[in-house]
Each structure stands twice: as C-alpha cells, then as structure tokens.
Design brief:
This protein has 63 residues and is an all-alpha fold. It has one domain. The chain is built from three helices and no strands. The longest helix has 25 residues. It is globular, with a radius of gyration of 14 Å. The N and C termini lie far apart (54 Å). The relative contact order is 0.11.
C-alpha cells in the first residue's frame, strides 16, 4: 500500500465537512465524495467542537 501525500486543509473546508456531518450526511459519503479519511473527518469535528466550547467559555467569563 502506498502512502498518501500529506494534505493541508483550510479552516473553511474543515468547517464545511463538519457541517455536512452535523446535517446528518453519513460519514462514509463525505469521506468518499471528498477523498478524505475517517480520521481527518473525526479529528476535524473534534477540533471544531473544542473551538466552539472555548469561545463559549470565553463569552461566559466576559459577562
């Protein structure tokens, strides 16, 4: 099996993939359609969730 070249995704693309998943598009379809790996999709989703939580905590601290 050949190793894939490392790819870098911009935040806008990552957010779009996470939104597709949150809108109930199956992971398997997203992975096939955009030539991703499950790992990319899962880690992107986790990163977006962490950023959102961080923003919420910051907003609560400011109030």
């Amino acid at each position: 099996m050949t190793k894939r070249a490392r790819r870098i995704y911009i935040d806008e693309f990552k957010n779009q993939m996470v939104q597709l998943h949150l809108n109930r598009k199956p992971r398997s379809e997203i992975v096939k359609e955009y030539d991703l790996t499950e790992r990319h999709l899962i880690s992107g989703s986790n990163n977006i969730n962490l950023q959102a939580r961080s923003r919420k905590m910051t907003n609560v601290e400011m109030n």
